[in-house]
Amino acid sequence: MHAEAPQFRRRPQRGFSLLEVVIVCAILAIIAAMAAPRFLVVERQREEKAITEVEDLLRMFAFRNSVGTQQLGFHYDKPAGMVSLWILDLNPKDPEGPRLWQQDRLSPVVELPESMVIDGASADDIAVRDDVWTITSNPDGSRPRIEVSLLGRETKGLVVLENYSSVPVRADKDGAVIRVPIDLDREGRALDAW
């Protein structure tokens, strides 16, 4: 006696109809249209925050330069996407030896979003073009005029720190005032009353 194997009825395979596919695509397109602006806003906020952090780092550079005696450096590393403040300090391994450039422990490192780079910088109107560069204060305590241009996917910014100012200016904003020194002697106004 042979027991026969039970036979299963195969259901006919059914795919998605064209109408169902069109409806799903339309729903996904609506969801994407609603979500995309939010992602762009978040990206813009990240980039604006990075520009503000670079401004703060330049403010710290100006402050530390005005109250300290050590030489400072405003450092950019494009491959790492980082901006930081450096200081010419004693070598901890050889305090009597030459000073070394070290990352400043008191200033936070600015990590730029992946979509943002510094696409231009200058010190006293001399452009720096390398992927890794440092703009330093002078050994006599003075510092150059620093201009930093940041470019992101959603925003851009131009931050200027004049050599006589302790506050950087966001030069790309409406109403930004960048004061220019005037040589009163050269203009023949040295004896004018203030």
Detailed description of the structure:
Strands 1, 2, 3, 4 and 7 form a 5-stranded antiparallel β-sheet that branches. The protein has a 5-stranded antiparallel β-sheet with strand order 6-5-8-9-10, covered by helices on one side. It has a single domain, classed as minor pseudopilin epsh fold (3-Layer(bab) Sandwich). Helices cover 26% and strands 25% of the residues. The protein is built from 1 helix and 10 strands; from the N terminus they run αββββββββββ. 19% of the residues are buried. By secondary structure, the protein is of the alpha+beta class.
Summarize the structure.
The protein is of the alpha+beta class.
Structural class: alpha+beta
Tell me the number of strands. 10
CATH superfamily: minor pseudopilin epsh domain
CATH class: Alpha Beta
The quaternary state of the protein chains shown equals single chain
Helix share bin: 25-40%
Instruction: Label the overall shape.
Output: elongated
From the N-terminal CA to the C-terminal CA, the straight-line distance is 123 Å
Number of domains: 1
Number of helices: 1
